[in-house]
Amino acid sequence: AGWRLPRYRHAALTEARIDQGAIVLVYGVGAAATATASAPDDEARAAEALLARGDLLGAADAYAQLARDGDDRDAAERQLAVLAALPGRWPEAETLGARLLQAHPDRPQPLCALGAIEAERGLWATAAARYVKLAELAEAAGERDDARLAALRAGELFMRVSPEDAIPWLEKTLATARDDVQAATLLCDAYAAGGRWQDLLRLERWRLTQTEDPALEAEVRGRIARVWLANLGDPVRARDELERALRARKDDPALWELYARALEATGDVRKAREAIVHAAAQLDGAARAELELRGATLAEAAGDREEALAHARRAVVASPGQLDALQRVAS
What we know:
By secondary structure, the chain is mainly α. The chain contains 18 helices and two strands. A two-stranded antiparallel sheet has the order 1-2. 42% of the residues are buried.
């Protein structure tokens, strides 16, 4: 469809960006040497040669000269792509990008370059709006993959400033790529941030249908249980989810600890203490001591002083400096 970014008649470079502090250059089919050999004139060949050698500053200046000499939009966009990979030249890139967008508001390459720079600067909402526009342009052009990727990036950026604004773009991503784990995870976080617990449960249940991995299923059921227990006040449903999760992950202390909390909330103190024993057995140090002390508290509530003392002693062994445990043993 001729929409994908960036796409030039005689270009080898298809992308130049900053990624975690590193300059990333991506070349199209034929690589730099082939593109250089087919460049239409000496100036273009010189620019390609500079780029192939990694001389980004020289390449940016060469493309600027090409753009000035021939009023060449493609050369200007190529210059912008290279400038986007040079943090010291970002002010120049932003000026050039703004000028290109003013002349051609629906050109995707300037939107992409400016969005990338703004994201690196921490201008999350401004960058997200660029990717929203890119997603809309790609969808209108019938470029479904590009539309999905732009929508995902918009969702990622909105999550940093307004999770509610991220939701429609993450939902759109999942609508066309149901196996996108990143989008699903971000959408779960967005629902949680907005207190949309039923939407979160619906999404988590859907994720259960997408996996046959017992470990992943247990992880998802644990998250569902946490919502039922901590956010919706239904420990019985939390308990039921955790019992299913623990069939797959019997040695997961976090699941056992959450199970103990659910059981305690239902009033089943005896089973809650048994769950704490299972959780504590997988841990050591201060983490184990903390759980053993919880077990001691439950045992005391049940009137079982001997078991409470046994928990306290194990807490001392796990963390000899634990004052509460020492006081329980001494008393």
